Structures are given as structure tokens and as C-alpha cells.
Amino acid sequence: MRRPLWLALVWSVVAAVATTVAYAAITAVGSGLTPASDAAALQVSVPTSGSGDAAGGQRNSMTSATEPSVMSPSGEVAKPPRPRDRIDKDRFRRLDDGAVGARGPGRSASYSTVGGTVVARCRAESVTLTAWSPAQGFRVAQVSRGPADGAEITFLSDANQVDLQVECSNGRPVFSVEAESADG
């Protein structure tokens, strides 16, 4: 009778120690994968909401402490977008140069639109699209990745089309966007 009780006690202690060691190992590995300085650069960037200027330029948005927010690699804080049926042609925001995909010589920059995100690299005056990812509900309809004087990509959904063109100016990617909605 004493033997089963003793075995149950030993088993419980071994299980508790194994669980503690496994938890500590997972915690150590998870926190050591990326340095804190890189964590902000790896966070997802989303287009800002609100009204932009008449030329469709860049804008910033303010968030309150109670609203969720997302930080871009440049350190700007933006509100997450609200679901919409139509495209807001001013919902585009450029991210800092040297963002994700900056490998080798040349300058890289990423640009996020409601249709998707593009990373481009300039070497002298030649541009190459190094990466792209369509947003949920969009697909890539056409891409001309370069290297060339200009590169372009078209993101398409059932109701919207976003055309993104990239050229190099002073060795840096310059993005221009045209957005069309199916209902005009």
C-alpha cells in the first residue's frame, strides 16, 4: 500500500519539475528571438484612417489611450483601419527607407496601401520590387518588378483596384498610387 503512494508522489514531483523546466525554456527562447530594438520594426503597419490633404499626401493620425494602435517601423502610431465597402483614396502611407527587405547595396523602402504592401529597392536610378503582399481580399493582378527605370504592381479585389508605381529619385524609391472603386 505504501509503494503506490510513494510512486504517485515521485511522479507528481517529476511532472512538476518537467513542466517548470519546459515553461522556462519556452519563455527564454521566445524572448531571445528578437532584440527589443527590432521588435518595433517587425510589427505590422496599417494604413491610417481619417482625412488627408487634397493631393492625397501623407498624414498622421492621433490615437487615444483606449483605442488599439499599431506602430510602424518609423515609430508613427496609427489607428487600425475600419472595415469599409469602398476604397478611401487617401488611405495610403509611406514607411521609412531601410524598412523590411533592405539587403545589399541600394536603398529600400516599403509602402502600404489598402490593396497591399510593396518593398522596393533602388540602385542608382534602377528600381526593383523585392517583395509584395496583397491585403486580405485582394490579389496581385499584374506586376512588373524590374530592375528598370520604373516598376509597377496592381492589386485587385472584387470591388477595387489599386495601381502602385515606383521610380527612383536620388537613389530612393518614390511611390505613386492610383485607386479605383467599382462604383466610381
Describe this structure as you would to a colleague.
The chain is an alpha+beta fold and 184 residues long. Mean pLDDT is 68; it is low at 33-69 and 83-104. The chain folds into 2 domains: 2-33; 37-181, no CATH class. It has helices at residues 2-32, 36-42; strands at 70-71, 77-78, 93-97, 107-112, 116-123, 126-134, 139-144, 150-156, 160-169, 172-181. Strands 3-4-5-6 form a 4-stranded antiparallel β-sheet, with no helix packed on it. A 4-stranded antiparallel β-sheet has the order 7-8-9-10, with no helix packed on it. It has a two-stranded antiparallel sheet with strand order 1-2. The protein is elongated.
Short structural summary:
This protein is an alpha+beta fold and 184 residues long. The protein is 21% helix and 35% strand.
Key features of this structure:
21% helix, 184 residues, 4-stranded antiparallel β-sheet, 35% strand, alpha+beta
Rg from Cα: 24 Å
- Number-wise, the strands total 10
Give the class from helix and strand content and strand pairing. alpha+beta
- The amount of beta strand, in percent, is 35-45%
**Overall tally of structural domains:** 2
Helix count equals 2
What is the string of helix and strand elements?
Answer: HHEEEEEEEEEE
What is the average of the pLDDT values?
Answer: 68
List the helices and strands and how they pair.
Layout: H1 2-32, H2 36-42, E1 70-71, E2 77-78, E3 93-97, E4 107-112, E5 116-123, E6 126-134, E7 139-144, E8 150-156, E9 160-169, E10 172-181
Antiparallel strand pairs: 1-2, 3-4, 4-5, 5-6, 7-8, 8-9, 9-10
